Amino acid sequence: MIRITLVAAALAAGLPLAGARAQAPLVAEGCIGCHGPNGAGAGGVPALAGRDRAELVALMAAFRANERPATIMGRVARGYTEAEIAAAADHFARLPR
Amino acid sequence: MTLSRGALLGAAALLATPSLSRAQGQARLLVVGGGFGGASAAAFARRRYPDLAVTLVEPKTRFVTCPYGNLVIGGVRQMGDITHGYDGLRARGVRVVHDWATGIDAAAKRVRLGGGETLAYDRLILSPGIALRWGAIEGYDEAASERLPHAWVPGDGAQTLLLRRQLEEMPDGGVVGLAIPGNPFRCPPGPYERISMIAAYLKRHKPRSKILALDAKDAFSKQGLFQDGWNALYPGMIEWVPANRDGRVTRVDAAERVLETEFGTRHKVDVANVIPPQSAARIAIEAGLTDQSGWAPVNPVTLESRVAPGIHVVGDANIPGPMPKSGYIANSTAKQAVASAVASLRGEAPPQALYYNTCYSHVGEDYGISIVGIFRPNAEGTAIVEVPNSGGVSPRGDLPEQRRLEATYADSWYESITKDMFA
Description:
Chain A is mostly helical.
């Protein structure tokens, strides 16, 4: 039973497990139209997959606050809540680079 | 720590979401229309809900995108670059049926096909695109469009290539006339990107030529940015005439290539691109899903028709509130519609909606501009609103690196979103 609890906890936390299917939060779907399916990047648009979660969250916070030069990401970042950015960062950080 | 297979299966069972099985088998999602809305819906449905049976009905075997069509008209892309097939969707497990959907029976949940087959569904995603309103401009019907191309519904690409060929055949010093419709219409910045790409071609090959843009509006998307770019890249070449200066074209003479405006000014041009007023595609009108505006009202959270339950209308055919009729919004709303349809089949509440848009436009081949919009339903779920203090257009000013980067990001967008739909 303790094993089941551990696995359930891992699944609930969204940790990768063999046989468990990574489910992107809907909020992350908006990113892939430019950053590529699975956040793999495309041309000059950087990959999101496999990036450090804290780095992604910090980048978006800096874009939101206008503290980092941006071509479009400042305009994008200000449309999302912190919880949404955290959910998307969680998702992309778990994907293979 | 080792995990037994039994433990894994047990945990998976504990956490499994309600299945999508029906008494007779798999739940059936039917998607009508294989463009930005429909292909996005079918691909997303198979990726996210593998136990859903997904059928896509689309008459064409190849899809030519509207985005980047202006670059084909300008001669910097080829038709093959903007043409996509449906094998990727088939490989994802979508049943693709190449036929016309000719009628919807919303009460019986069935769609009739031109070939005689009838498809039953549990939920329908309808993304039929637009119809051009032939006759809304006097003299502009389908036959006239063979001489004065619209190039606004690409179909098999013939209209796009016709406009391209006419530009190639025009002598230097000619006048290219455009008739541009009032709101709402497909792709708000599209006519102005088209002006830009035509200007880029003329500047290089026929520099004494002019562009006369006759507009049924007094203002347009990314106007300041476009006009800054025109002044910088094509000085003196483009005349834009707003409605309040008699820019609205009300009549055309196809044989003479004359564009006639509201107050009777007759502009004789050498090439005419007439973009007529539009409505939702015919199937949406015939199914009674549209209102007096010609477009389909939908629930802001689920994209479900206000008229017919069980039918989610996405893409350019619906009434999107403040959102543009764009490929990215079609993609974004299609995913929310699928997720809402599945939630309904499972007896769950729809997911929280968030709609995302970025539209890039090319002013020059290496000169891009953009508009960003993030939208949500209001607290009551009665209307869609743009998130305050977010989105907006590129900054103005002399910013060559910004323009260069946005042109490359546009290419990345095209590659990414078409992969999301068709790969």
